[in-house]
Amino acid sequence: MRHRKASLKLNRTTSHRLAMFRNMVTSLFKHERIRTTGPKAKELRRLAEHLITLAKRGDLHARRQALAVIREKDIVHKLFDEANEKFGHCAGGYTRIVKLGRRAGDAAPMSLIELIVPETGGTKKTKKKGAKAKAAKTKAGGEKKADVKTKDKKKSAKKEAAAETKKRPKAKKKEALAPKEETAKPKKASGKKEEPETKSAATQKKDDSVPKPKKAPKKKPSKEEKKS
Fold this sequence. Notes:
single chain, about 10% strand, about 65% helix
């Protein structure tokens, strides 16, 4: 029976093993992923998740416990400041181990251990399944179409308003020119009336220049006609 034998010795003394894991967990929180052998990655995961739970607790005693393990103060302060934002969405399972195959020299199984940080940093989004998901998709599609229609209506209204604003100055110009044309019409009429006079004067000059036919001289009545 393996009573009180929870951890692996990894062919190292206790001081060597603890110092190695302190270095590894410091590098993990600094770079968010490291590459190591499979057994070391599994042992490191226990220590890293324990430190994350201390950081989520966030009190002074938890900070001092973390400083007893992690070698750099700046990394401890960063971990405690960002723990609730990065890992507040779940209660455990903060790390991921990915197997990479065998090492070239001694064929040791290699693994990649990394922190699981959500992209948005918020709560988990529950996945909708079946009819609910389809209904949500159709609603979203209908809303998008309605938004497109409203945008098209707004664009057409803007175009009509712009066309009306362009037409208004032309109408104003026509209204302003209308009284001027009315005042100019009588002048044209008076000019037309005066034209015949000028023409008559010209014709008179022509008539004066043309020689008039001489009148036949009147015959004097004879004596016999006077007597009769």
